[in-house]
Amino acid sequence: MIRHMVKGTQPETMSRTLRAGAGAGIWNHVFFFFGFPTETMKEAQETVNFIYAHQDAVHSASPGVFVLERYSPVHANPAKFGVKRVIEVPDQHLAIYFDYEVETGLDEEMARTIVERLLDALPASGTASTISMT
Q1: Which of 119, 113, 134, 99 is nearest to 34 (CA)?
Q2: pTM metric for this prediction
Q3: Per DSSP, what are the bridge partners of residue 131?
Q4: Helices and strands (H and E) in the chain: how many
Q5: Cross-strand partners of 45
Q6: What's the CA gap between 62 and 50, in Å, rounded?
Q7: What is the 3-state secondary structure (H, E, C) of 16-42?
Q8: How do 97-102 and 29-34 pair as beta strands?
Q9: Is-contact 64 118, C-beta < 8 A?
């Protein structure tokens, strides 16, 4: 999924950076989201597994749901990212975000369900890690 998103990093690099930062006393906040076009449940689970595997180095986090933004790489080239249709409403010329349909993968509703269930499974606030919705 990281390659598909063209993030330019690898999980090994993220892992090393989180652990080194925590070891140096740096507060690590991570932002991650679900529902990028073509993302499968297996890939979403890999993200959850990564966060849990690094909970000793992640001090706070904000899970979210993918949104298709105007002028983003996905908006500029939807087919490359598995988006079959971007829904642009003609009278909303200043729209920043667009609804869309994917060829395969999680839809927005399922991505929101994953975030909600993840938040429900986390420890209560006041523990070492804090997760909040953005």
Answers
A1: 113
A2: 0.81
A3: 61
A4: 5, 6
A5: none
A6: 14
A7: HHHHHHHHCCCCCEEEEEECCCCCCHH
A8: unpaired
A9: no
